[in-house]
Amino acid sequence: MGQIILKQKRKRRLESGHPWIYRNEIEEVRGEPEPGAMVMVKNHQGHELAVGLWHPTSQIAVRIISYDASERVDRHWLKRKVVQAWSYRKRFLSNTDACRVVYGEADGIPGLIVDKYSSVAVIQITSLAMDIRRDWIAPVLQDVLGVTAIYERSDAPTRLLEGLEPIEQCLFGDCPAEVEIQENGIYYHVDIKDGQKTGHFFDQRENRAAIAPVVRFGAKEKPRPDQRFREEQADIIQATSVQSTRIGAQVLDCFSHTGAFALNAIRYGAQQVTLVDSSERAMEQAQKNAARNGFSDRCEFVVGNAFDLLREYERDRRQFDVVILDPPAFAKNRDAVESALRGYKEINLRGLKLVREGGFLVTASCSSHVAPEEWREVIVEAALDARKVLRLVEYRSAAKDHPQLVGMAENDYLKFAIFEVRPR
Q: Residue limits of the PUA domain (predicted)?
């Protein structure tokens, strides 16, 4: 096994739980490890720290797999890791029929993502080490998850940094173009071949459910104490809200993608939701999902640029009880952070101006390069400029099937908050 000797003057990120060794942290490489091979990582004094997978030309030179020097990477290792990841999901999720089963480094399998959509698994490989071990993956997933089809969506731009070309293929079984799943009591048609990422964003599952208390009533309504939201009432709300004398919230859902937040809002009692997205394809999928759940009559579908439409709605003096902002990542790299922060301030400023007094702003960021404190600061600045006072209802991160590896800031990518909005 090759040996990687780390520099004496380096940040102790590895000891704090970060699973990556960058090239500029390495003092010496002993032996001639092949790309993707296991290597032993030692400090400058020769003490064994961890074992990982080697990539000589990537900025991430070593991806740690274990702090146990006796660990060996083979098919048994992969199966054991997948079993552990699957057991974790079954412990914390009520519905494991549709979830993220493997989340790369956070599950000790660097460079591998596995999402389960009923009997179909969609995988994404982002590292050279896992790419050369692709043949191990399908048999393990068949054995552990019992899936009947496995589709590979290895089209992430990060593959290029590993010297890998994009790959999309059916690895096993008869891979359908679309799969139906259920999440939070809502049905979705998931496009696994042409949808974004692997087809569906599981990381916002619990955050979508968290909007229930703010959408059940409009800003001007005054719920009685016995009308507090309870999750078990959701199906009753869905069945009776159209006939009920209760009005329910009017909601604006920007960057709506295929309608997940909007459909959750309706399920939990919203009267009407305006969905805005720049993608015609995503909007068509959102319309399809709304129809599948019987929600079409309470949806307004708008294809357009959210920044432009927010300004237009402000000019038209439109107001909503709840404004939801769930944009794509504005910062793809560290150089884009400054412009990303300007973008986050702009959409939150415009969104705040559309919220009725006593209404709510539901806002998120999935830019890993934007720190949580930076994101929260621009929301404070947006509230200042909009002459609004915010009261934090809830701050959250990614769902439980996206566990956060403490010591790895990159895992803390999703920021989600609900604010009550009042005038100043």
A: 2-87
Q: Which residues touch 159 (CB under 8 Å, ≥6 apart)?
A: 125, 126, 165, 166
Architecture of the structural domain at 2-66: Roll (2.30)
Q: Where in the chain is CATH 2.30.130.10?
A: 2-66
Tens digit of each residue's pLDDT (9 = 90 or more) over 237-276: 555 554 444 578 999 999 999 999 999 999 999 999 999 9
Has domain 75-181 been given CATH number 3.30.750.80?
yes
Q: Which residue out of 175, 254, 299, 366 is catalytically annotated?
A: 366
Q: So what's the pLDDT on residue 295?
A: 97
To the nearest 10°, report the CA torsion of 220, 221, 223, 229: -90
* 366 annotated active-site: yes
Q: What is the pTM of this model?
A: 0.92
User: What are the tens digits of pLDDT across the range 385-397?
Assistant: 999 999 999 999 9
CATH 2.60.120.280 is the classification of domain 201-423: no
